[in-house]
Amino acid sequence: MATLQLRNITKRFDDTEVIKGINLEVNDREFVVFVGPSGCGKSTLMRMIAGLESATDGDILIDGQRINDVGPADRGLAMVFQSYALYPHMTVEGNMGFSMRLAGVPKEERRAKVLEAAKILQLEPLLDRKPKALSGGQRQRVAIGRAIVRNPSIFLFDEPLSNLDAALRVQMRIELARLHDELDATMIYVTHDQIEAMTMADKIVVLHDGVVEQVGSPMALYHHPCNRFVAGFIGSPKMNFLPVTLTGVTPDGVAIRLPGGGQRSVPVDGAHLDPNATLELGVRPEHLVLDEQGPLSGEIKVLERLGGQTSLYVQMDDELITIMADGDVAYRVNDTVHFGFAPERAHLFDAGGQALPSLEQHPLAGLTRHDNRGPSSPSEEPA
Amino acid sequence: MTILRSATSATSAPRSVTGLRSAQSKRAIITVLGWSVALVIFFPIFWMILTGFKTETAAIADPTLIFSPTLESYQDVQARSGYIRFALNSVAVAFGSTFFALLLAIPSAYAMAFLPTKRTKGTLLWMLSTKMLPSVGVLVPIYLIFRDVGLLDTRTGLIIIYTLMNLPIVVWMLYTFFKDMPKDILEAGRMDGASTFQEVFFLLLPLTLPGIASTGLLSIILSWNEAFWSLNLTSSKAAPLTAYIASFSSPEGLFWAKLSAASTMAIAPILILGWMTQKQMVRGLTFGAVK
Q1: What is the pLDDT of residues B63-115, one digit of tens each?
Q2: Could you tell me if A10 and A60 are in contact, meaning their C-beta atoms sit under 8 angstroms apart?
Q3: Which of A298, A359, B27, B120 could staple B116 via S-S, CB 3.0–4.6 A?
Q4: What b/e readout covers B60-69, taking b as 16+ CB neighbours within 10 angstroms?
Q5: What does the pLDDT look like over B205-219, one tens digit per residue?
Q6: In the predicted model, what is the mean pLDDT of chain B?
Q7: Measured distance CA(A335)–CA(A17) in Å, rounded
Q8: Interface-testing mutation among A15, A98, A130, with chain B (most B C-beta atoms within 10 A)
């Protein structure tokens, strides 16, 4: 199995620098997700790892070996493309066995390996079909199958689910997570969808404008975003941001005055704060609670009932605040609501957008997807 | 829901009927225009075929569609010179030059389509610009070179000339077909361990085969019909069908019926080839446009 290291990787296209010095460690058998808005460089970064693009500067190491000058096929990687990139003139079996055909593997051995992969992906009945006779989900599985037969040390996925419809995407997400457990391989996954990142990753790498904004477990990123960008990007619906005034710093936290005049103390480290600093408060929609005594209030502009939950869009001065409330709230549009939040759920950002560090770590912040399985995980049992 | 649906269908019905009518009349106009153009283009060929079946006197008489057909001209033409020899030269030269043009053009189009540099567009334009050069401008130097290296009146000589003549068009066409090929597929091949040659052979060529076929067909037709170089660089041994036709316009006088019979025989093979492959041709030539 394999580890991957990126050391000070940069990529320049003509005069534009799209990757600006990235350092990253990917551990053995880890599921790492590169996430970020489009144009952040995540796909370019993956293509450099794959060898389809050369790095302008820096080193790429697999298992400690520098592989910058090794061809894509010899890096021991396999890649699943966003467009699937199946060979349209070959059958499913031909597609999956192509790498072995090129390598001169005898036909029987090829077939055995293809069958093995087809079994994992439930593709056996489709082996003689051409890609155009397959559904989107099946094509996706063939593309994954083509990667599996190569028995790579690292799997690369470039937005593999973005061409699927919502229901299929959820299903493939589960299947991919299961596959990761089953194959026990290192996987790197690129997506712009933070839900995919949250659900599948052991480690999320948030990229923005060619730099790494934050690396961490999904729960760490959710509870302790290091800056305003990560805070806004991770979590759905987006975090709410409100300008607040600094009133004092104590060992227990930072005291602020809210837009409505209410006072709160947020348990973050404000030791280095300038007394005149402008601050921004960040609270996730699901952490805002409707409360008649709450310090914040506003008029409901839009109300979306999802059944189990209701999203309230509340106008507060210039800001439209999103609140995830209970499904059965009786409010209507144009009603005025009062709401508040638990201070330990709130985040404070300085003028530069950097988060003030929490005084206390969230108990689940270190959790990875693997930890969710508990001690009697199925993959540890003999197959 | 039902009410809503019937309401929308009621409002959209008249609009769609008028839309249909205008579409129909548009199609009728296009059909008439298309047929007219086709007939105008085809008429000389039709007249030539007809003339081939006339006697020499009927051929120069007042144009008429009613006459007693005769194979006289065909017999005369056949008696005078060996059609087969010329036809074989044409086949060898047209297919030979097309083969070499593709052989050179596929790698160059690959490089231009998948590994473009800043100068690729310029190179392509420059290649095409060579087609603007009047052939007669380079006739003397090429004639002298051919004479000195012994390529005059040889098939090899004609194949070289035709390969170079068609290369710009072949590269351009292949370039556009290759451009349309999803890059991901080639990259997937590279990830699967394909060398550049394998990438081209196993992925690019099978997937762009319709385009390559229509390019090849066009090159064959252009070479088959080429008359300037074949008349000037060959005389007897390597003379293709164009020279064969020209031989009937001789100082003895112009024999329209024989000339027509010879021409009919000269274009028949390529006409039939074009007819059989017209679907392929049209698909290939409009490949980029309809996508």
Answers
A1: 777 777 888 888 887 777 778 888 999 999 999 999 999 999 999 999 999 99
A2: no
A3: B120
A4: eeeeeeeeee
A5: 988 888 898 899 889
A6: 85
A7: 49
A8: A98
CA closest to A144 among chain B residues: B188
Residues of B numbered 180-199 whose beta carbons fall under 8 angstroms of chain A's beta carbons: which are they?
182, 184-185, 187-194, 198
Report residue B288's pLDDT band, with 50, 70 and 90 as the boundaries: very low
The answer to whether the Cβ–Cβ distance between B194 and A102 falls below 8 Å is yes
Task: Look at residues B166, B168, B165, B184 and name the one whose alpha carbon lies nearest to residue B176.
Answer: B168
One-character DSSP codes across B65-127: S-----SHHHHHHHHHS-HHHHHHHHHHHHHHHHHHHHHHHHHHHHHHHHS--TTHHHHHHHH
**Residue B14 clears pLDDT 60, i.e. is over it:** no
Top residue of A75, A87, A91 to mutate, by most chain B CBs within 10 Å, is A87
CA dihedral A190, A196, A200, A206 (to 10 degrees): 50
The pTM is what?
0.79
For A177, the token pair is 């997570």
Q: Which of B191, B193, B206 sits opposite A103 (nearest CB)?
A: B193
A292-309 per-position pLDDT tens digit: 999 999 999 999 999 999
Q: For residue A196, which amino acid is it?
A: E
> Running DSSP on this structure, what letter comes out for residue B286?
T
Question: Mean pLDDT in each 10-residue stretch from start to end of chain A (383 residues)?
Answer: 90 90 92 92 93 93 92 90 91 94 93 92 91 90 92 92 87 88 90 90 93 93 94 92 91 90 90 86 94 92 92 92 92 93 93 90 75 51 39
> Distance of CA B220 to CAs A13, A255, A310, B91, B276, Å?
42, 84, 70, 9, 14
Are the beta carbons of A260 and A297 closer than 8 angstroms?
yes
What is the Cα–Cα distance from A160 to B230, expressed in whole angstroms? Answer: 57
Token pair listed for A166: 């919502």
